[in-house]
Structure formats: C-alpha cells, structure tokens
Amino acid sequence: MSGGSLSSDLTALPRIVEALRAGGVVLLPTDTVLGLATLPHMQAGVDRLYALKDRPRAKALPIMVASPAQLAGLGVILTPAIEQALASPFVPGALTIAAEIDPQICPDWLAGRREIAFRIPDAPLLLELLRQVGPLLVTSANRAGHPTPATASEVLAQLMGAPDWVVDGPAGADVASTLINCTRSPAVIERLGAISQAQLAQYMQVCHG
Fold first, then answer.
1. 1-15, 73-87, 135-149, 184-198, range with the lowest pLDDT
2. Contact at 8 Å (CB) between 189 and 206?
3. 30 partner at 20 to 30 Å CA-CA among 44, 122, 125, 167?
4. Comparing C-alpha atoms, which of 1, 56, 65, 51 is closest to residue 27?
5. Using CA atoms, how far apart are residues 31 and 38, in angstroms rounded to an integer?
6. Is residue 2 part of a domain?
7. Strands in the chain per DSSP E
C-alpha cells in the first residue's frame, strides 16, 4: 500500500490516520531520514514497531509533536535550555531534544519514564498528521544497528516484516537529526546529525558529549 509524498500531498492523510488509529505502523518520509511511526498509546503498534526494527525494548523510542503546545500534555519540564532550543531556527527541524518529564502529569504510556526525546519536524504533511492524531512515536526506518536506507523499497527489504501503510516519497535528508540532552547543564550533544555544534552554539550553550 502506498500514499503520496510527505512534503506537499495531503491526500494520503486520511489513510495514514486510519492505519495509525487501527494500531498500525506507517513508513513515511520525514524532513530527515525515512521513519516508522505509530501511536504511543496503541500497545500493539508499539510492539510491532519494536519487532519490525528488531530493536531492544530497553531503548526508548523518540517522540514527534506538532508544536511546543503539545509538550505540556507529555509532562515536559521546560528549562531555559529547552526554551532556547525551541526558539532557535532549528525548530521545527532536525533537532531532537531530551527533556525531563513530570511523572504526575505525563500520560499513562509514559509511566515509568523519567525523560523523553522529542522533535518538531519541518514537514507539512507530518505536522498536519501530528495535529490530527497527537504525538507519535517516530524512529528511523531501519533495522537496529543498520544504516537507514534512502528508499522505501530498501527499507522494506531490511525490516523484520512489512509496515501496515507505506507513504511514498523521498526523505528530506540523508542524515538524522542532532540530539541534545537538555537534562544536563549545559546541554550536551549526544548525537551529531543535520545541525552542527557551531550552529547550535549561536543560540544556546552546548557541549559535545
């Protein structure tokens, strides 16, 4: 099954929403690499996503949100570093932020977690999808320990099974997002990706882990 390009074609949106709300996993382009997405409160989808990637369950999945407004419902504790990151020109974009969460506010599917990694993507269809269904678990579309392929067909050949829906279209880049850990002070770069340390340093204090 396939839909349209993530960058501009919204015609695929209803089918993507349908697949996700049925507990499915969707392969789709993001503004960085190809990704696999599922609704975090659908346990069947979460289990399937881990199985498709052959990913250890001890490794938590990152979260995508449509805007900073959706962070409150996740219990994200905003710090000056997070606020600086959110105000930078890299958001929306290829910047993933690790943050502490308030266990008394976070939803049930985050129970037991003390922190999360989230990103606001710079992709119109993906942002509209996040507005409609809420936060999603979105991770690179590769088998654990392998590089992320550039095309959907290569992804399907690598995964441990097939996703429930495939959105055709190229990824926005061939490199993953940069991950900064804002639970530490100063913030620490834990994965260098599309955004360099020098670029980040123009807007916030950050060091390399």
1. 1-15
2. yes
3. 44
4. 1
5. 17
6. no
7. 26-28, 35-38, 63-64, 95-100, 115-119, 136-140, 165-166, 178-181, 187-191, 206-208
10 Å Cβ neighbour count for 137?
A: 23
What's the pLDDT band for 18 if we cut at 50, 70, 90?
Answer: very high
pLDDT, residue 169, reads 84
Residue 86 lies in a domain: yes
Confirm whether 4 is domain-assigned.
Answer: no
Answer yes or no: is pLDDT of 45 > 90: yes
The whole-chain average pLDDT of the chain stands at 93
Q: Is residue 6 part of a domain?
A: no
> Is 175 within 8 Å of 193 (Cβ atoms)?
yes
Percent of the chain with pLDDT over 90: 89
Tokens 């260098």 sit on residue? 192
When divided into structural domains, the chain yields a total of: 1
Residue 93 is part of which domain span?
Answer: 13-208
Hey, what amino acid is at 208? Answer: H
Cα 181–114–98 angle (5° rounding)? 20
> Residue 13 has which token pair?
């949106």
pLDDT of residue 10 exceeding 90, the answer is no
The CATH number of the domain holding residue 171 is 3.90.870.10
